[in-house]
Amino acid sequence: MKASLTGKTVLITGATGGIGAATSRELIGRGANVVVTDIGLEQVTDLATELGERALPIVVDVTDRGSIDQAVAQAVAHFGKVDIVFANAGIANDPPLTVAGLTDEMYEKVIDVDLNGVWHTVRAGLPQVIENGGYVLITSSIYAFMNGVVNAPYAMSKAAVEQLGRALRTELAYRGASAGVLYPGWVDTNIAKIAMHDPGPVKELADHAFRGPLGKTITPERAAKAIANGMEKHSARIIVPRRWVPFSMLRGVFNMATDALMQRDAKVAGVLERIDRDAPGA
Ligand SMILES: NC(=O)c1ccc[n+]([C@@H]2O[C@H](COP(=O)([O-])OP(=O)(O)OC[C@H]3O[C@@H](n4cnc5c(N)ncnc54)[C@H](O)[C@@H]3O)[C@@H](O)[C@H]2O)c1
Predict the structure, then answer these.
(1) Ligand 1, from 12, 91, 116, 164: best to mutate by most atoms within 8 Å of Cβ?
(2) CA nearest 276: which of 171, 149, 88?
């Protein structure tokens, strides 16, 4: 199935970030109405002004269920309906730290946005998606299946929201609606910069763990094209770039091998020792 996005209304959280803004532009180009939501008033207003009259700016903090409920209501009042909800807002723990080195507050902050925020977004948008035979797209990550060393709260959230998306797709099928999971690899945005934390031990670890093409970023525009294509097809999975497809498919075997290798790797041990040395939770 492939349905045109022309005339469809798409609500995006984290819409002014790298992937969110590029996707908003791509969707406007394909004829959709876009509800651009994010935490900054100036940012959502600027983006909506750039996008034109088919964009509606709304301030939303996904950690606050009430604010996303209100955004859905405003979107319905303005465009008449919401067909697609893109639960895209996300943060990474900054700086990346080990489980021992994090504070509980740092952990809770990431879980609140990346897991609970996605839950709130999905729950708030679901009645509209069901009513309109629409689609929910949940942003997970390659961290749903790669080892989340120094990014455990992020990787935990991304693995959890993958499960949310899979269950949702099955549960929505009898209602004529659908859901899918987005797995970006490295995309050139703020979050990727935090994870690479140039220069220092985090960068050394990332370079060591993600070698060759696996460490290369793609542009947000390339991710946005794959996302819009997936929205048209109501795809179950959008993996971008495609070089990550075999790692997702073979994760059972691959994860056992790479986890075992990393735990015996002297370079990894040395870098983790340096990351832990000045960590706030240590
Ligand atoms: N960039 C990558 O390499 C990469 C890889 C895998 C997954 N992702 C995921 O893609 C999504 C988009 O990230 P991005 O790469 O565009 O990064 P980004 O930092 O450019 O964008 C994230 C956006 O989320 C918004 N946000 C943060 N907290 C929020 C809150 N409480 N309520 C509402 N919005 C909030 C930010 O303001 C920002 O605009 C995230 O879920 C991220 O985890 C990114």
Answers:
(1) 91
(2) 149
Distance of CA 167 from the midpoint of ligand 1 (Å): 23
The C-alpha atoms of residue 54 and residue 7 are separated, in whole angstroms, by 9
In this prediction, residue 263 carries a pLDDT of: 95
Instruction: Evaluate: CB of 162 within 6 angstroms of ligand 1.
Output: no
Domain boundaries, the chain: 9-276
Round to whole Å and give the CA distance between 109 and 116.
Answer: 10
Rounded to an integer, what distance in angstroms lies between the CA atom of residue 132 and that of residue 80? 11
Model pLDDT, residue 199:
83
Task: Dig out the tokens for 160 from the structure.
Answer: 């959890």
Query: What is d(CA 196, CA 203) in angstroms, rounded to the nearest whole number?
Result: 5
Task: Report pLDDT digits (tens) over 101-110.
Answer: 999 999 999 9
Q: Say whether pLDDT at 282 is over 80.
A: no
Q: Which CATH superfamily is domain 9-276 in?
A: NAD(P)-binding Rossmann-like Domain (3.40.50.720)
Q: How far is it, in rounded angstroms, from Cα 227 to Cα 18?
A: 13
Tokens of 2: 């492939």
Expressed in angstroms and rounded, the spacing between residue 191 Cα and the centre of ligand 1 is 7
